[in-house]
Amino acid sequence: MAGAVAAGLALLVAFPPYDLWWMAPVGVALLALATHRRGFWAGAGLGLIAGLSLLLPLLSWAGLVVGSVWLWLPAGESVFFALLGGLSALVSPVVDRWPRAAWPAATAVLWVFQEALRDRIPFGGFPWGRLAFSQADSPLLGLAALGGAPLVTAGVGLVGGLIALAVRSVLDNRAVTVRAVSERPAPVRPGGEPGRRSPLRTAAAALGSAVVVCAAPVPLLWGDPQPGPQTPTVRVAVVQGNVPRLGLDFNAQRRAVLDNHVNATLDLAARVAAGETPQPDLVVWPENSSDIDPFRHRDAADRIAAAARAIGAPILVGGLQDDDDPTRVRNVGIVWDPEHGPTQTYVKRHPVPFAEYVPMRSFIREYITEQVDLVRRDFVAGEVPGVLIMGPATIGDVICFEVAYDEVVRDAVTGGAQLLVVQTNNATFDEAEARQQLAMVRLRAVEHGREALMASTVGVSAFVDRYGRVYDPTDFFTQAVIERTIPLSTGRTMATRVGVVPEVIMAVGAGALVALALAVRLRRSSVRTLSDDTVVPGHGPTPGAVGSTDVTGSPDDPSTPLVPSADGSTGRPGPRPGDALVGGETTVTRREADE
Length: 595
What we know:
Layout (H helix, E strand, L loop, with lengths): L1 H11 L10 H13 L4 H19 L4 H4 L5 H24 L6 H17 L25 H40 L15 H17 L17 E8 L9 H24 L8 E3 L13 H14 L3 E8 L5 E10 L3 E7 L13 H7 L10 E2 L7 E4 L2 E7 L6 H9 L4 E6 L6 H18 L3 E5 L5 E3 L5 E2 L8 E8 L6 H5 L2 H32 L30 E2 L5 E2 L7 E4 L2 E4 L7
Parallel strand pairs: 1-2, 2-3, 4-6, 8-9, 9-10
Antiparallel strand pairs: 1-13, 3-4, 4-5, 7-8, 10-11, 11-12, 14-15, 16-17
Helix pairs in contact: 1-2, 1-3, 2-7, 3-5, 5-6, 5-15, 6-7, 6-15, 7-8, 7-13, 7-15, 9-10
């Protein structure tokens, strides 16, 4: 249990606000070691503990909004970590019989498999806490350009598996030496059986391989942040209007937030007119900068229009659009042109379950909690990617938590987006959540080779270049305007081209590995059952076996006692005549009456 708790906490500090990215492989290694050769249910229990140790503190910001009911989120998400732990335990006896690299590779694909499920089910999934999102400052971030977030997760899993292999090899070497000394005083060759690689050499090779895996993607993160002379650019201003804290009712709060963003934009326009700052080509406001529907409320529309005319550039407004059904609403990004008013609208495609809409509302209200009605209106999902034209640029609009979903961001890029824009509202959370979200923006910028920005009501707002570097980050709970000239891109990275293919390949590989492990276990059980029913007339149980069919030992199992051989060395017994090999292990089935 201690190993599982340590694994979860090691994973936790890899994420913002701690940003110790190198602890993610350590957490993977600790969980792999804890579940190694355990039973499925024991491994599942350890995986559940690791998941809770990670997700309870990582998602604690959700409790600021809904109180104790938020505990259902980390509890439900930890079930997938339980599955990971159980499958890791299930496949470990099989991969132990394969070449040394099999265990790290299996660890990597099982992590990808777990995240592929968690990102999609139930209700569209919840990807927060993916290994890839802990690697914004890691050289492994470069893998995103080749295979997206799943390949980054696989890289972390592979490095973690190699660390686990190194640790286990050192422990194996120590166990072999101790047993040899205690059972026979004769000298023992460090490394165990003849013909086998020394465990210490295996450990060194595993650690060296881990370093190589980490270093290999580094060239993908090198590049000149300055655009070339032929590269088209746009001047972008991000307005972080901030929100009032206390003392206003709900409607007054909404109007105050809108006024904050309008006034900050008017101040920017005054500075442009005075020649203090360049004229922006487009302006970005965050999610919920106008929670008063400007299509239904003339006063809100007039305020936004005044800001657009003053700055002389289109504004991307984050707003709420009321539905004819009073129980429904839309989370939208609206392009507000200074001359033509609202021209294009993007409706958020992936509302967050239990935060922006409530599935099975009546059932949950009756049997789980009445707090479900804290979400008063259900957000309607859009159907079209957020590809919007703003002046000289085509942007890919992504609203808040959508940045965590691979397909939402990729659809915007393949739809023609030259620049990624993430509109978010972090006012109801804390700075840790905002920084976790910014790490996702950094990964997406590298993944698709696009400049990106995050516009928040309260922070953190920032620009991110295509190599994942952050510029002009704002402080939390402050009003700020940041500006930057950004190069536009129309190229496509390998990750953009192949899309979900790497994830599918690795997930299928994990499924095949699990199927093989189940087949080996079933075959082993059937052989043992047949052996229990087999009696050879005139012969009792095989010496050294438990009953008539127990496993006498495996040459690769460090728990098998060492025995002296004819040449004076020590080693573990191999298969004996009449033994049946099942799944790479030796099982005594029966012996012929006359050998």
